[in-house]
Specification:
alpha/beta; Enolase-like, domain 1; TIM Barrel; 2 domains; 3-stranded antiparallel beta sheet; 13 strands; 21% strand; globular; binds 2-succinylbenzoate; binds magnesium ion
């Protein structure tokens, strides 16, 4: 298995309640299955995955990629596991001459709606970013909240709803910033704004708290960080979520997302797939996984524009809030173009 490191700066930092994301570093891996190349990406993000150093170490220990997955050797390094699992899936789909999405599901989507990711900023700047996204064709926006005081966040959400009108779907992502009392107060104050959901209002471990918020308020609740710290089956059993936000990088690979999604479907819970602000290889992997899932929700995959550069040209740019799934075999990118 070949491993190459990379580092990409963000165009401007993405401010979240969890801190600023300024730069993304990771590894591209190349594997061979029956003479067919496959490529994967590990872009760790502490809080969701192992550290960069731990990821590097885990990948260095991989001799036989297929065996590493089969023996669960990368159980404690989800980003490393993601790279290996994605590379194997890419190689197998190329061997079978099928797009990755079609190798995951027979009736996959050919294109998907995606949300625009709007970072924390003062109210005027937030409204401007929201209006720009709607002008660019997005009809779903995800606003970061929880980084400033709750009255300011409530004012930001209200101002955006007033600016974009009722036809645009709005999501808010608090990245676990609130306690139960604060979340209760915010959810009561925004009950008239018709948010599609509030993502991770409480810290990751607080499944019971999220279940209480769901019972008390009409605004749906999504879990993100929780899935990186508790088994997804427990999150589902706790009735803590209307939506699970699945990050392939955090869950350990596309196969893990498909597994969570099949359990979620049985529980009547929707899946939204998002990147961890990744390079093109992992973004494409997430796009193919999202395309293989049922449902019509917008996914959180429109993060290429947050990066200053990339490891290769992007075959799936966002156009008017929609991403088309590449139809060529595997991920839809030439491994040699990425690794040389
Ligand atoms: O969902 C999106 O719109 C993009 C992905 C995103 O917001 C994100 C990106 C990196 C780390 C955490 C998160 C998050 O969903 O909290
Ligand atoms: Mg989130």
């Amino acid at each position: 298995m070949r491993v190459h490191d990379f580092a990409l700066d963000l165009r401007q930092p993405l401010t979240t309640a969890h801190g600023d994301i300024e730069r993304r570093e990771g590894f591209l891996v190349a594997v061979d299955v029956d003479g067919h190349k496959g490529i994967g990406e590990a872009t760790p993000l502490p809080g969701w995955t192992e550290s960069l150093a731990e990821c590097c170490e885990a990948l260095a220990d991989v001799n036989d990629p297929k065996q590493a997955i089969e023996t669960d050797a990368l159980a404690d390094a989800p980003a490393a596991r993601h790279a290996v699992s994605l590379a194997l899936a890419d190689a197998r789909a190329r061997r079978d001459d099928a797009p990755l999405a079609a190798s995951f599901a027979s009736n996959s989507h050919t294109s998907l709606p995606v949300n625009s990711t709007v970072g924390d900023a003062p109210v005027e700047e937030t409204v401007e970013a929201a209006e720009n996204a709607v002008s660019a064709g997005f009809d779903c926006l995800k606003l970061k909240v929880g980084a400033r005081d709750t009255d300011a966040d409530i004012a930001r959400l209200r101002a955006v709803r007033e600016a974009v009108g009722d036809d645009v779907s709005l999501r808010a992502d608090a990245n676990g910033a609130w306690d139960r009392w604060t979340a209760d107060r915010v959810l009561a104050a925004i009950s008239d704004l018709d948010l599609e959901y509030v993502e991770q209002p409480l810290p990751a471990e607080e499944l019971a708290g999220h279940a209480v918020l769901r019972r008390r308020h009409d605004t749906p609740i999504a879990l993100d960080e929780s899935l990186a710290s508790v088994p997804p089956a427990r999150a589902l059993a706790s009735n803590a979520a209307d939506v699970l936000v699945c990050k392939p990088m955090a869950l350990g690979g596309p196969d893990r997302v498909l597994d969570v999604a099949s359990h979620a479907r049985d529980a009547g819970v929707d899946i939204v797939v998002t990147t961890t602000i990744d390079a093109v290889v992992a973004r494409l992997g997430s796009l193919h996984v999202a395309a293989a899932l049922p449902g019509e929700r917008a996914h959180g995959l429109a993060t290429a524009s947050l990066l200053d550069s990339d490891v290769a040209a992007d075959p799936a740019p966002v156009s008017k809030g929609i991403m088309s799934v590449p139809e060529s075999p595997g991920l839809g990118i030439d491994p040699d173009a990425v690794l040389d």
